[in-house]
Amino acid sequence: MARALYIHWPFCLAKCPYCDFNSHVRDSVDHAAWETALLADLRHEAELAGGEQLDSIFFGGGTPSLMPPALVARLLNEAEQLWGFAPGIEITLEGNPSSVEAANYTDLAAAGVNRASLGLQALDDQTLRFLGRLHDASEGLKAVETAQNVFDRSRST
Questions:
Q1: For residue 156, is it within any domain?
Q2: Which domain holds residue 18?
Q3: Which of 46, 52, 139, 140 is most buried, with most CB under 10 Å away?
Q4: Would 155 be classed as within a structural domain?
Q5: Helix 69-82 crosses helix 31-49 at what angle (to 10 degrees)?
Q6: pLDDT tens, 88-102?
Q7: Is the distance from CB of 68 to CB of 31 less than 8 angstroms?
Q8: CA dist., res. 86 & res. 118, Å (int)
Q9: Which class for 146: exposed (0-12), middle (13-18), buried (19 or more C-beta within 10 A)?
């Protein structure tokens, strides 16, 4: 049986008007408290559903590309210790195609992320403004290019 792990990071730079997910805009995030809580949750889940290697890890949100790469690395290390990783594991992280987040891609890849899921809803600036997005079409395309150059599996479908 395939095993997958979902890790939720509920924080965003802005709340999109169409978003129904558990996401919040904060001036700051207590990363140490979140690390403690997320590690405790991983350990609890491993007690309930441990025993098989993970085939997939998905960081969703919110905007997990805003997570400190060191926190991502710590969570991945813990998940590997608790479950083990199957060969060819997909480790996907959601992000928005803004330059603020794209600047983290190299460090996130070094932490173990090998696939990006970019929230590129449109390539029309007027539509992006209507949707409340913080990037424009040009910035979105640059983020796609950056992701393709950084993540090993970014070209996978």
A1: no
A2: 4-150
A3: 140
A4: no
A5: 20
A6: 999 999 988 875 677
A7: yes
A8: 24
A9: buried
What's the pLDDT tens digit per position in 31-44? Answer: 999 999 999 999 99
* DSSP 3-state of 9: strand
d(CA 87, CA 13): 34
In this structure, what token pair is assigned to residue 126? 């007027």
The encoded tokens of residue 137 equal 């079409």
Total number of domains in the chain: 1
- Distance in angstroms (rounded) separating the CA atoms of residues 138 and 6: 30
| pTM of the predicted protein model | 0.86
Assign residue 107 the CATH number of its domain: 3.20.20.70
Q: How far is CA 104 from CA 4, 36, 48, 66, 86, in A?
A: 24, 22, 33, 8, 26
CA–CA separation, 23 vs 7, rounded Å? 13
- Render pLDDT for 102-142 as a digit per residue (tens, 0 to 9): 778 899 999 999 998 888 888 898 998 888 887 889 888 98
Does some domain include residue 39? yes
Judge whether 55 lies within some domain: yes
pLDDT band with cut points at 50, 70 and 90 for residue 14: confident
